[in-house]
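The step that takes the researchers longest sounds almost clerical: writing a folded protein down as plain text. Below is the pair of lines this work produces for a single protein:

——
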Amino acid sequence: MSSIKINHLSFGFTPNNLLFKDLSLSIPTSSFSLLTGPSGSGKSTFLKLLAQLYPTYGGKIDQGSIQNLPTKWSMIFQNPDEQFTMATPAQEFIFTLENLNLNSQQAEKRMLAAVQQTNIKQLLHRNFSTLSGGEKQRVAFAIILAMRPKLLLLDEPFASCDPSNRAFLIKQLALLKQKDITIIISDHDFSYYQHLIDQVFWCSNHTIKLSSLNQLSTPKDTRLNFIPLPHPTPILKLENFSLHTQEQTLIQEQNLSLFTGATLLTGPNGSGKSSFFRVLTKMQPYNGQILLHNKNIQKIKNKKYFKQIGQVFQDPNNQFLMVTVAEELKFGLSHCNNPLLKKATVNELLTLINLNHHQDQVVYSLSGGQKKKLQVLLMLLANPTFLLLDEPFAGLDQHGQQQLITLLQKYFLKLDSQKGLILISHQFNNLDNFFNYHLVLQDKELQYVKEKR
């Protein structure tokens, strides 16, 4: 069996901070490889090296080389918003296949086959800005199928997927494996596709080594316990509320209260969870009234409103205002409203989220998990009354998830009994006994559920 060869490779973004040092590795082709390891260890960077995006668009190879790379490769990025260049999936298909020098008849044939196989016909002509993270991942997968690569690189491809979408994409991967495609997937949660994995590589401490599934702790499908508060206080009230887009109705007219404490919001991909968050941050129109402490939010000036409502965005790149990690935290400290963090230094905050060695790093070059930790800390500095968190665990290993839970408990929820948060997630590890309520958006209705997940 042939293999991709990495020979004594040293790579980094700055000369004094190499991510990989003298790395030598052999990855079998026509096989399925899992690349795993702690958040920030370099998994995404390694995939981009294999895709030849680095060092072309960043970083420098100090020594060594990569050999025997297939000429036809495709990659699904960790952040689906970095995947596309056109406005709609249909346009993206055409752009991609034209770049493969296919004529219009060949391109249309491949597109129709991929659309049918992935069942995305209803998404083809929608703007990418209206698609959920899981829907974008499904579109990305469809385009990959149409490209027919020999090497497929997948960076946390299921992070934004609901269980149904995840199961569907895993079935597609199983079909691709039968076609002798080389598949390399970076992931923290490999549940439900262990049977596809031929070899495991562990990434940490500037190197990548061959490992095995037996040496890894398999994430458990935890059944969550919810602990309702004895006397919950409504923070936000929806009155005769409904939410519509040009394409569809997302939420039918209803009344609902959002309470103090921690609420988990779940629902299928595309049901409108992120759109609901955009409504609560005055970024999307709606019908009816939303009351914050019994006052219509449309009558509250934005400066005052956004001191009370904060959001951790699904796309972390939308969160940052400065260039480096230290600059972001320095800016956050200058506007800090959190009494527990007000006297902290930048170094203390960096140590709190294990980014103390990344002070001078550009925020956009952080790993997906590192960006999530920085996002949450910035919102804790702002200290709003009500916090919205959209997929905050995407790209994080189990230790990183536990870190965020501890931060939210210690520096937000326990700070004031009148605070509340809503968290969207399809990942449930380490979340047992954290939430007070479970809110589900399904069939165009928001409903609290009492049963365990």
Notes: The chain has a mean pLDDT of 91. The domain at 234-448 is CATH 3.40.50.300 (Rossmann fold).
